[in-house]
Write a structure and sequence with these properties.
Layout lengths: L7 E7 L24 H21 L3 E7 L14 E4 L3 E4 L13 H10 L4 E4 L12 H4 E4 L4 E5 L6 H11 L2 E5 L16 E3 L3 E4 L7 H12 L4 E4 L2 H5 L6 E6 L5 E8 H6 L2 H8 L3 E5 L2 H4 L5 H4 L1 E3 L14 E3 L14 E4 L1
Length: 342
Amino acid sequence: MSAQAPSAVILVRAAKFLPNPATAADNAFQSEAPEGEPDEVISARAVAEMDAVADALRGAGVRVHVFEDDDHTRPDSVFPNNWLSTHAGGVVGVYPMYASNRRHERRSDVLEMLKSSYRVQTIIDYSGLEPDGIFLEGTGAMVLDHVSRVAYTAVSHRADTHVLERFCTDFGYEPMAFDAVDSAGVPVYHTNVIACIGTDVALIALEMIPDVARREQVRERLTVNGRRVVELTEEQVREFAGNAVELCGRTPEGRRRYVMAMSARARRSLRPEQVAAIEESCEIVAVDIPTIELAGGSVRCMIAGVHLDRRPPGVETEPTAAVEAIDEDPHTADGRDVAGDA
């Protein structure tokens, strides 16, 4: 298993997808649904796009866990990376969400699958901070360098620096917080729309970090172990070029292969030299997801990576400790919608 690129992912097949009105105010990447188009048609297109992403990742040799969701009150459940992260050593993070109608995206059935199929030792749950108005939306708010143990974070009301410090203490990361804004001065709502960190390459819109000194510190930290930085423009970020994720797949012969998953729209925005720089270390897997992108997120937002050791078949599940759990059982799910390992 690669430290940076997980070989398994979790996707949510949201049957009732729609752009979320509760997140439109601070998500400058979000668009309204086409006027006059029935919700059922939009949702059906989004399901087809999610299926296409799952098929593309399976085709690249990535293990894909798909969870069904037909709850019409969870319009953004297709983006599980905001409430869940997993880490080497068997640690799972659960996060506080800004929009109240996103908080019940947290699902106990997903956690139970992780505990039964992978070695999970500890679940650290920060969701009890929500009543205090403190939020850190998982690997949307943080872009994690699992190799150098750095948590890159664009500060916003969805990424509180106090809970970021707690996360870094609990999980053993160095915080690298910075302000990031677009050309109109609007803060970037999630770090993962402007940055993607792979094993040997990073995509990042450094120009959107206005503090020049901090910008250079971020660049230096990204390259300290020889990683190549591909600089994105704000225009490319608006095409979701930063919302990509490196994964570790397998060839049909069983050889390891690294892939950079992104949307077709993001891929089209890249210049030839940027594509060449990415493809020096990984193959680009691009899928067209225009309906899902209406919600202001793209392929990276759809993927919760599994950085856990897999259990051998037939091994009994070990007890899992709950640490820093503000709520004993904060997850709201009926548990009936699990789809197994693909």
